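Researcher: Sequence recovery benchmark, item below. Answer with residues only.
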């Protein structure tokens, strides 16, 4: 890094997938990825991911699911560390139709690629996409992804919404790290090759 020059913000994605590569089943259900609330290893992992200083990015569908859960007293009771991190973090939701966001610390953007290019060029915390498979695909195609973290869950769905489905070009990646959980899930971190 050049002297006196700040590093650019990194853009990463976190996605829970079935063994056969889907982030939602044929009906849009993602409950296959839910773990037991008593799974201490998994909850520690999620808590450490949520405790970082980052701006959270969502597509509209994922945003609607997140805002329906994380600001609730039930979320605060079930996963207090993750709920606190999610509610405190600055958030951006990408939508062409949404006018205002109800969740605190949230702004609405319409131009996905343009806004992410601008955000990456500005100083500030890194950018993290949670879920939102469609925007991950678009940003990967635009060459803006720095890291993709997937957690492969020990279940096959047989169909649904494929992760990076519809990618218009080949995307070569290299594995930078892995972690195996006692619950059978495997976390894999990828970077553009």
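Model:
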């Amino acid at each position: 890094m050049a002297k006196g020059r700040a590093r650019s913000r990194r853009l990463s994605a976190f996605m829970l997938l079935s063994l056969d590569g889907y982030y939602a089943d044929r009906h849009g259900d993602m409950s296959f990825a839910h773990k037991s609330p008593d799974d201490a290893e998994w909850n520690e992992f999620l808590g450490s991911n949520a405790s970082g200083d980052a701006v959270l990015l969502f597509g509209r569908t994922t945003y609607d699911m997140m805002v329906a859960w994380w600001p609730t007293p039930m979320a605060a009771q079930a996963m207090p560390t993750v709920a606190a991190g999610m509610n405190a973090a600055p958030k951006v939701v990408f939508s062409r139709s949404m006018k205002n966001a109800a969740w605190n610390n949230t702004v609405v953007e319409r131009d996905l690629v343009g806004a992410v290019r601008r955000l990456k060029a500005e100083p500030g915390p890194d950018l993290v996409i949670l879920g939102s498979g469609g925007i991950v695909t678009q940003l990967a195609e635009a060459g803006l992804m720095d890291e993709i973290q997937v957690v492969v869950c020990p279940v096959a769905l047989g169909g649904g919404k494929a992760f990076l489905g519809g990618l218009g070009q080949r995307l070569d990646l290299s594995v930078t790290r892995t972690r195996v959980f006692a619950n059978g899930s495997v976390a894999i971190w990828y970077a553009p090759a």
